[in-house]
């Protein structure tokens, strides 16, 4: 399938860096990029533009698909946020240049209220500024080296653990613990404001979002462990189990936490093959991979 980009992604992104493109007062625009989107921070509002890419599991290659998934992202994220995701707006070409709200649309953007970056959970964890009360608040929402032999041991234990948990997982599915959730509830997608905002859920592929709720809980279990805060993990899990009534969560959580950590290790490994990543960063990336593997091994080891 060909990629459809009427005036070119780069040209549109540059145009959206101009404060005049927006219908409200903007002093300056800051761009945050990922491999699938561009987010334009304007002060009061953030605007998300989906890139015209097709990775197979994610297809934003046409204007119609990008418009569809903008509306899906809006709908799905409004479930876990409060007055954060506002609407989908067209961006078009006016006499004075690219402007929001103009049709026919060159593309579409999701309009959101801009969150304070210093209240993002991952930033707070880095500063050691998360309290046990913060961990309770989240609950209602649903060695030095690692060599080949250790990796083989981890792989064997993980496969064995999965085999041993098949019946427990099936019971959980039968009793309503498989749900349409968030799909990426990492600390980076949580903002500790009032009320708590859990944003940027997976909208492009439903199978990445539907699963055992333990898989959602595992994201934060992993991140709390990553930042050396098992106390936060313990309070978060205890509060979650008490409020949700999910007494079987702990029986399968280690499996899901190990899985999440292994996925993060895999993502970091991909960065080693990325030509845009400086070679100087490879040592740091390898250390991240090692830490995620150690975290996964600990998660597997704590299971019966």
Task: Classify the oligomer.
Answer: single chain
Low-confidence stretches: 1-6
Number of domain units: 2
Strand count, sense and barrel status of the largest sheet are:
6 strands, antiparallel
User: Strand content of the residues, in percent?
Assistant: 15-25%
H and E order = HEEEHEEEHHHHEEEEHHHH
Which structural class matches the secondary elements?
alpha+beta
Distance between the termini: 48 Å
**Taking all residues together, what is the mean pLDDT?**
90
Give an overview in words.
There is one protein chain. The protein is an alpha+beta fold. The protein contains ten helices and ten strands. It has two domains: 9-114, Phosphorylase Kinase, domain 1, CATH 3.30.200; 121-301. A six-stranded antiparallel sheet has the order 1-2-3-6-4-5, sandwiched between helices. Helix 7 packs antiparallel against helix 8 (230-244). The longest helix has 24 residues, at 249-272. The protein is globular.
Main features:
single chain, 304 residues, alpha+beta, 2 domains, two-stranded antiparallel sheet, 10 strands, 16% strand
Describe the protein's topology.
Layout: H1 9-15, E1 30-33, E2 37-41, E3 45-50, H2 63-77, E4 85-94, E5 97-100, E6 105-113, H3 121-126, H4 132-138, H5 148-164, H6 166-174, E7 178-180, E8 190-191, E9 197-198, E10 210-212, H7 213-226, H8 230-244, H9 249-272, H10 282-301
Antiparallel strand pairs: 1-2, 2-3, 3-6, 4-5, 4-6, 7-10, 8-9
Helix pairs in contact: 4-8, 5-10, 7-8, 7-9, 9-10
């Amino acid at each position: 399938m060909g990629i459809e980009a009427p005036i070119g992604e780069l040209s549109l992104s540059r145009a959206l860096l101009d404060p005049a493109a927006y219908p409200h007062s903007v002093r300056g625009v800051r761009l945050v990029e990922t491999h699938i989107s561009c987010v334009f921070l304007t002060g009061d509002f953030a605007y998300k533009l989906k890139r015209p890419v097709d990775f197979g599991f994610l297809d934003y290659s046409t204007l119609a698909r990008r418009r569809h998934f903008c509306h899906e992202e809006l709908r799905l994220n409004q479930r876990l946020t409060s007055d954060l995701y506002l609407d989908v707006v067209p961006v078009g070409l006016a006499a004075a240049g690219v402007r929001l709200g103009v049709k026919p649309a060159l593309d579409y953007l999701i309009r959101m209220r801009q969150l304070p970056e210093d209240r993002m959970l991952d930033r707070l964890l880095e500063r050691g500024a998360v309290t046990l009360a913060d961990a309770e608040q989240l609950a209602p929402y649903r060695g030095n080296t690692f060599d080949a032999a250790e990796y083989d041991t981890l792989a064997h234990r993980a496969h064995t653990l999965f085999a041993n948990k098949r019946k427990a997982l099936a019971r959980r599915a039968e009793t309503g613990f498989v749900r349409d959730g968030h799909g990426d509830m990492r600390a980076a997608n949580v903002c500790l404001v009032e009320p708590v905002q859990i944003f940027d859920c997976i909208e492009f592929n439903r199978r990445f979002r539907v699963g055992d709720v333990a898989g959602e809980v595992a994201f934060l279990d992993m991140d709390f462990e990553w930042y050396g805060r098992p106390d936060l993990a313990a309070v978060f899990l205890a509060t979650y189990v008490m409020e949700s009534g999910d007494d079987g969560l702990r029986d399968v959580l280690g499996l899901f936490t190990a899985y999440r950590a292994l996925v993060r290790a895999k993502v970091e490994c991909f960065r080693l093959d990325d030509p845009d990543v400086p070679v100087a960063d490879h040592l740091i990336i390898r250390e991240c991979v090692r830490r995620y593997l150690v975290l996964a091994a600990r998660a597997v080891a704590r299971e019966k």
